Amino acid sequence: MYMNRWDADQEKLAETPDLAALAALLADRTRAAICMALLDGGTWTAGELAEYAAVAPSTTTEHLNLLVAGGLLAEERQGRRRYVRLAGPDTAETLENLAGLAPYRPVPIRSLAEANQRRALHHARTCYDHIAGALGCALAEVMTERGLLAREYGLVLTAAGAHWLAALGIPDTGPSLAHRAHVRTCLDWTVRRPHLSGALGAALYRHALERRWIVKSPTTRILSVTETGRTAFRDRLGLPDEALSPSLTFPAPRG
Amino acid sequence: MYMNRWDADQEKLAETPDLAALAALLADRTRAAICMALLDGGTWTAGELAEYAAVAPSTTTEHLNLLVAGGLLAEERQGRRRYVRLAGPDTAETLENLAGLAPYRPVPIRSLAEANQRRALHHARTCYDHIAGALGCALAEVMTERGLLAREYGLVLTAAGAHWLAALGIPDTGPSLAHRAHVRTCLDWTVRRPHLSGALGAALYRHALERRWIVKSPTTRILSVTETGRTAFRDRLGLPDEALSPSLTFPAPRG
DNA sequence: CGGATGATTCGGTGCTCACCGAAATGTTAT
DNA sequence: ATAACATTTCGGTGAGCACCGAATCATCCG
């Protein structure tokens, strides 16, 4: 069918974002749980998600179909497996922001093991491609205090910060950093303070992983600070000891 | 009931953000329409929203109850009226991001007047407290080209940009700018390119309104560029003429 | 006071959709 | 080939919820 400029414009003009359709994807307990699980930045199989969400495999299939069709998830099929992950950093960031705005719901804790696990999650965990939890928040705070980041029209990298990054061996403008915008912060749902996300957050996470300052649990989102990491975080950033290990008490809120 | 430190921590640990509950608020066509309407940054009465969304007043009441209880909307009651608005800038920003991620839905256009209205909306409109549409995107682009903004670890204000702001009479660190973070961009759902949001976007919008570079339609989100504005935008920023009036053709995509 | 107006409560209706189980499909392992 | 496994298709069921209209409540105005 022939379409002239006017018709093409009409077409463009006559569109509106279907917010409800997108929200409907997340409005289901099970689908929301799947998305939160995938916020670890990893790739899961349909079966793993079925067990995690405690629903039948057939139900999971339907949910994944919707989420993929809606553009929230990317999928990759290998043999009889279906691997899914979040579609991209934008998706992850929006989910994080949404989670920060969401009300809180009590979660049952049945055993000491579960309690310890949650404690570890609160201390340090992955948030897609960066560090969240008390450790992530402490990083953002200390970097601000030290003048590596500044709050001027937002959180930005200072000259000192750029220098510090270079000293660490993180190039201040790489291919992955250039196209992805922002020193961003997102509200941490455990500590309710901001932590670093965006390209800078991702770069720091990768760097810390490479140097084995932190290690990631293969099955969960939990991060542990290694002995090397403890030293590095303390010496290079002056992170207080409380931020470096899961403890019974939380650091006092900023004041 | 007495609660020691351990119990308090347990309580905090045993919470998780209820993403599904929040998303459910937006998963309804009518409620989503209400939120999108409120993205104009204004305050609406229940009756106005009922007419806008084309549902019975009783239905609107129920929706508003849910949205207010969920923390998305703030309400203020005066006499027999119920005024509602978005809860805050965070809410608006998250909604914008979500809308940018959402799929597009064709919207019926029944008359020439409606077509013109949509054209105007695409050209320039309010997005909570800043400028969106082709004009908003053009602003962001031109400011970047002119070196007022730079993409280094994200979009930041350059020294030249700060100077330019000062010359305009916008203080580079005001009370409202300091506490609200970020030179932010959000994906425009009409042009699908980023426009300026965050504190800087809000400051620019206010400034342009005060100088009457633009005027806002009292009933819709449509912005019109005045004759003064045309001159100001062109002289101070070098905005191309295409960006200054609604036209039949769109500016070519960047490249 | 009495009438108009904006908003709310409530009961009832219809539709959507999350869920499961059983059977089927396709893939890897023995 | 046969068996074990991961996922999918399909039919049926039950619960949740968006909607309306009619009646009610509260406020403003003459």
UniProtKB/TrEMBL annotation, chains A, B:
Name of the protein: Transcriptional regulator
TM regions (residue ranges): none
Gene3D superfamilies in the cross-refs: Winged helix-like DNA-binding domain superfamily/Winged helix DNA-binding domain
Residues of the HTH arsR-type domain: 11-106
Entries under PANTHER family matching the protein: TRANSCRIPTIONAL REGULATOR-RELATED (PTHR39168), TRANSCRIPTIONAL REGULATORY PROTEIN (PTHR39168:SF1)
Domain of life: Bacteria
